[in-house]
Amino acid sequence: MSGNTLGHLFTVTTFGESHGPAIGCVVDGCPPGLELSEDDIQQDLDRRRPGTSRHVTQRQEPDRVEILSGVFEGRTTGTPISLLIRNQDARSKDYGNIARSFRPGHADYTYWHKYGIRDHRGGGRSSARLTAPAVAAGAIARKWLHGQFGTVIRGYMAQVGEIAIPFTSWDEVARNPFFAPDAAVIPQLEAYMDELRRAGDSCGARVNVVAEHVPVGLGEPIYDKLDADIAYAMMGINAVKGVEIGAGFGSIVQRGSEHGDELTLQGFVGNNAGGVLGGISTGQPITVSLAIKPTSSIRTPRRSIDVGGEPAMVETFGRHDPCVGIRAAPIAEAMLALVLIDHALRHRAQNAGVHVSTPAIPGSSS
Amino acid sequence: MSGNTLGHLFTVTTFGESHGPAIGCVVDGCPPGLELSEDDIQQDLDRRRPGTSRHVTQRQEPDRVEILSGVFEGRTTGTPISLLIRNQDARSKDYGNIARSFRPGHADYTYWHKYGIRDHRGGGRSSARLTAPAVAAGAIARKWLHGQFGTVIRGYMAQVGEIAIPFTSWDEVARNPFFAPDAAVIPQLEAYMDELRRAGDSCGARVNVVAEHVPVGLGEPIYDKLDADIAYAMMGINAVKGVEIGAGFGSIVQRGSEHGDELTLQGFVGNNAGGVLGGISTGQPITVSLAIKPTSSIRTPRRSIDVGGEPAMVETFGRHDPCVGIRAAPIAEAMLALVLIDHALRHRAQNAGVHVSTPAIPGSSS
Amino acid sequence: MSGNTLGHLFTVTTFGESHGPAIGCVVDGCPPGLELSEDDIQQDLDRRRPGTSRHVTQRQEPDRVEILSGVFEGRTTGTPISLLIRNQDARSKDYGNIARSFRPGHADYTYWHKYGIRDHRGGGRSSARLTAPAVAAGAIARKWLHGQFGTVIRGYMAQVGEIAIPFTSWDEVARNPFFAPDAAVIPQLEAYMDELRRAGDSCGARVNVVAEHVPVGLGEPIYDKLDADIAYAMMGINAVKGVEIGAGFGSIVQRGSEHGDELTLQGFVGNNAGGVLGGISTGQPITVSLAIKPTSSIRTPRRSIDVGGEPAMVETFGRHDPCVGIRAAPIAEAMLALVLIDHALRHRAQNAGVHVSTPAIPGSSS
Amino acid sequence: MSGNTLGHLFTVTTFGESHGPAIGCVVDGCPPGLELSEDDIQQDLDRRRPGTSRHVTQRQEPDRVEILSGVFEGRTTGTPISLLIRNQDARSKDYGNIARSFRPGHADYTYWHKYGIRDHRGGGRSSARLTAPAVAAGAIARKWLHGQFGTVIRGYMAQVGEIAIPFTSWDEVARNPFFAPDAAVIPQLEAYMDELRRAGDSCGARVNVVAEHVPVGLGEPIYDKLDADIAYAMMGINAVKGVEIGAGFGSIVQRGSEHGDELTLQGFVGNNAGGVLGGISTGQPITVSLAIKPTSSIRTPRRSIDVGGEPAMVETFGRHDPCVGIRAAPIAEAMLALVLIDHALRHRAQNAGVHVSTPAIPGSSS
């Protein structure tokens, strides 16, 4: 209710601030019997971790996760899994000069008005650092989904500022610090980022996420539609300003005879639906696209006001990502996994025992 | 949990099917003491109602709402408000020919797989007719928000198929059946719709919604961000495939020095944020844009399969909107109102007694 | 959140006031495919209905239920089931004389302070009439539980005022207006009630409820324990002031060597646990006992104050049950059914696929 | 949903097992601005702590709490407060001999059937040790309630086995290890406990809790009645088998003319209601009474079965409380505080702005 818990049957309750003693979460509702170790979680955390290339924030956080509960003799017990990550490299002094001013584009102003108290150190609770617990929880969700349905969830960078990135291969995504699915574009991206850093500015990005091998039938009829919950989860990621499913905004200029994916015995012909019809999964790949705004913390001086209501100029000298979209792919994957596992459990609650004679047709060839 | 309830403190639980005896909802959590009559609700229902021009479905539904509870001597009592709308013009026989086949682009296939039972009459529960109860509930939310904060929520048609519509004036929106904010474009839209109808095809649309006079501080920090909840509410509207807040997908190609709205004593300079920073309202107008796919029910024959898993050709002869986006503005307004009232009540629960000395700066002049 | 919805996966949202146009509920989360007709529900409503003997209120309400949604061709569809009961015999004028005064023992005073608005007609929303929608919803739950597990839920009157009623037979319960499980005590009960009515007074009661053939494993570990949810559901019934599970308050004077039910291959030896250990069902009968206070609306003049803060004397001349416990058995059965179905669905969500080699031992022979 | 979270607006999500690395909770929804330190919480934890007298378990746990988040510069920020308690004295080997057998009266059997996995070490998640996080969270709730309304919540031991304890004074409660409100009875209690320990047996208890200075108007109308939520919270405490509000089971033999508390300008006359009418607080003291069963882990050999379905004899040699009721008072106080703060916040959400001219009359003199 206070906005720190995600999900209904598989829930993630996060806690912590960017520069407090620790961050973490309690994962509740994970089915018992799943093999789980800290290594399973660490892999995904490492993909999101800061400080791994010169193109992201230089804050050094090992982000080592500790499982405090819910696992016994290497398996989940069905009780809450508590995950703890201690903060290490919190240089709060970097933020001393902005303690009283509101940074344009930042949550400073709104937190101040909402809570009447402001933890100015690194953005406090509004920091993107708080996506780490979600990534950790998402790792558990992914493992379970893969074991149950063979579900594979992968994200990639589709555009950095003006540079659109062609999709060449999933294999390439893990080979470069941009999560770009094309090797040829890397030098261009590096030059672009270096120039931004010199200019003390930042840029936006588009990240795509795809979930394959999702069972048919996930999602609720009116208000917890699968695509609605995906939109909620994605728009809730720091800096996201737009979400598309399937054809997305492109569907505005489509005709019905073009958009509606036909069905044949070989499967759906096309996937304008993005794997969701009437809010419920079709069995096709779920395809999602995100617009991520440019980082607000930049070294360019900007006009603002302070907590006393006086004019102020603000520059941010802390360590920041010049393009927050770069580390967004693992976060978006985790959020998609968390939405899917929640709906998979809801489906199980509601519909066990329902037998449909029609076989699910194969997923789209697209 | 079964996806028929919206909201946390101001909740709307809907029921009904397109061709069942009735549709309606229970609105719970409305503060006591609000003056409320059926007329207050009917006004919004009438804006969404079918059959009002040749450009929308010809189904004749008066959509008369009856208040069954929660209002005593003209005021809300704080207890559940039950709203009932009887279905009148349910010509189920129109659907007999598609009872066994799945319509491309429709929820038929997914409902069948989810529930093992299919109410083929007019789409059953998946019909856009089920947005009527939300519009009714939204009318209550709007009235309360306006009384408390002066909040005004308005939507308009921004694009029909390839035809982008310039924003000329709010006044124009109510004067034409397209909710278009420009008089000059109407003949073009009419010709376009007539042509589509002749072709037995349909088209997509873009609808924008704006909420003005929203108090600063609404929204939760991590998972029930105001923009996340808006994305959820909007993506849950039938046929919506994309949602943007503020600069939306345009922010991909912006620089941080351009996107981050500066603050001055006269207010924010620009509104790329769309009225939300860090998931919390800034006091500026909330601006949302939706992509709506073309209607799936068209008279063009399309390939599909039936419940027995056999190939089938499907044409839809029922009464349908050639552009479902046309009636979407009042629905989007209602959904935005429902999200805002829920957050306004949550804010009240959490933060009463917090006093911030900084005055909220004026809303953006944009 | 506003206290009008029960359950998590199988939810009941009620609406209505004692003297408004209608009462009813929306049942959400009922699994699809259950055969359901209005007759299935009417049977339970008729057992709770007023006016059926001289020992209960003489208000004449047929309590005919109408199913407005969620059932298609005689089976549930998995979408919300809306149930409507029109009020018929609302003699609001009976309450005119108490419109401004607070009746001792009644919710008048607290509703006035909570809502600032008071529907004085028959208690408005606080009336026990509002248990009717729960009984209707409970009928659906019972039918599903019986079909899935053979669960049988039955309640009976165990004590009326000072008169303890021996348990002789379940068959007897349906044969008298008191739900008493013993024929011999009926004349004594009738004389007692007649005397109370003459005296213009009322009395308390104890009602017991038993659920047999409940599967092992229902209930959550810490906060939604099965017995906790039962206590919540029972204490929420109008006029209930105490709830016991199994040995209840008798366990205070037991030793551990007496209370802890031993296990043998033939089953548990005894059922002090009342079918719940560690908050989770054991497979034994669930046994619950309720204390129900005497009706507050009596013809005896009593001291009170009015809405202006002035002293007042209050007598209640409306039609009232002299012992509200008399009609409580079907209500308690319904509440128990609603708790059990909710936990059965939760269990399914969380634990499908878990295989335990230990067979569940037979239920206790007690 | 998985039963590890309590509350709606002020939520407590607990984690941990009796013999895992740590236990703790995340408290969400605490209003910002409350002064809070670890000492505030430690005081209540120390009252519940084991090993403080020879009459309770000898397990040595300092139960030192660490605040990981949600507090900045000595005040709550409105974001989640994470509380961590490391387990120290976990002698799992004590439990080796019962790893395969089910202890009569214990959750072993039901956890095994629910989860298919059993953490046999000290009861795992079902251990009463898991009440510590709730006590810690309750300390925060109490501090806030006291600051807002002057609310005081106190519990005491009212009966140990057959020994009823007269209420002499609140001051006495803190002076003896039994939380007994009478000094004279202490020698008798000590002798009784020593005898039980020699016999290898255990006994039940009655604990009473009272909340004074509770504002009028807390509680919801139908399903989240204040007394229903209290019953839920109390029945969820380990070993509780019965809950009473006000006159409780005594109301069965009362007449309406006796039970219904009259109102005068000086306040309510009597408090049979226990501070709740129609599920909503009256402003009088909330009075609750609990039946606590005798400890199940005793040194007396008892019949059972094992996980293979074979007969077994079980004796428990671990360190256990001979009367779990002894440490129950601080737990019951915490649960009552958690229910009250949740309803106080809900009340604020729903009813701010409602002005009632009738003054709340003074609390009962009883």
Short description:
Four copies of one chain form a homotetramer. Helices cover 26% and strands 21% of the residues of chain A.
Structural class of chain A: alpha+beta
Shape of chain A: globular
Report the biggest beta sheet of chain A as strand number plus sense, adding barrel if it closes.
5 strands, antiparallel
Taking strands numbered 1, 2, ... along the chain, how are they ordered across the largest sheet of chain A?
Answer: 1-2-3-7-4
Query: Roughly what percent helix of chain A?
Result: 25-40%
Oligomer description: homotetramer
Q: In terms of per-residue confidence, which ranges of chain A show pLDDT below 50 for 5 or more consecutive residues?
A: none
CATH topology group of chain A: Chorismate synthase, AroC fold
Descriptive terms for the model:
homotetramer, five-stranded antiparallel sheet, 18 strands, globular, alpha+beta, Chorismate synthase, AroC fold, 366 residues, Chorismate_synth_AroC_sf (chains A, B, C, D)
Give the topology, please.
Four copies of one chain form a homotetramer.
Chain A: E1 5-6, E2 11-16, E3 22-28, H1 38-48, E4 65-67, E5 71-72, E6 75-76, E7 81-86, H2 108-115, H3 131-149, E8 152-160, E9 163-164, H4 170-173, H5 186-199, E10 205-212, H6 226-235, E11 240-245, H7 256-259, E12 262-264, E13 267-269, E14 276-277, E15 280-281, E16 286-292, E17 302-305, E18 311-314, H8 328-351
Antiparallel strand pairs in A: 1-2, 2-3, 3-7, 4-7, 5-6, 8-9, 8-10, 10-16, 11-16, 12-13, 14-15, 17-18
Helix pairs in contact in A: 1-3, 1-8, 3-8, 6-8
